[in-house]
Design goal:
Layout: H1 2-17, H2 27-52, H3 60-74, H4 98-101, H5 103-126, H6 129-150
Length: 153
């Protein structure tokens, strides 16, 4: 029994220890993954933005649904920013090489955006448009800050 537990623990440790690059067969797969996650997040953030700006009627259930997706998606793309996937290697990406040169700054920006998305989700669950508006701005600013520093135009 102890050998089985030890073997299972060893396998689990190895799986957890694998680098993020091992999750993708090719660099192009990582790029597609992160672009897809960011596109979905941006789409649902835009739907919230339309409500916040009064371009569409406020719908508390739809706002909560969209904010939940934004928060979930905010956690996904960053494992796909692996070495060898910047725009210097792949022109179909806007990922600046600065991401890898300033990785700690990039990771901090990602965490800030994820924290803001989580606060937006909490605000949206309240069903209160004013709370959503208050959380929407900082989330958008966190997204923009990362784009300004790490995404080419």
């Amino acid at each position: 029994m102890n050998r089985s537990l030890l073997a299972a623990a060893t396998v689990a440790a190895l799986v957890v220890a694998l680098p993020a690059a091992a999750q993708f067969q090719k660099p192009e797969d990582a790029i597609k993954y992160r672009q897809s996650a960011l596109t979905v997040m941006g789409t649902h953030f835009g739907r919230l933005g339309a409500m916040v700006q009064g371009k569409v009627p406020f719908d508390a259930a739809a706002a909560a649904h969209n904010a939940q997706i934004v928060e979930t998606m905010s956690k996904l793309p960053f494992t796909a920013f692996i070495d060898g996937t910047s725009q210097s290697q792949f022109p179909n990406t806007h990922a600046k090489p600065d991401i890898w040169a300033e990785r700690a700054k990039f990771d901090a920006a990602a965490t800030k955006m994820q924290d803001a998305a989580a606060k937006l989700n909490v605000a949206a669950k309240s069903g209160n448009l004013d709370q959503i508006k208050a959380a929407f701005g900082p989330t958008g600013q966190a997204c923009k800050a990362c784009h300004d520093d790490f995404r080419s135009k």
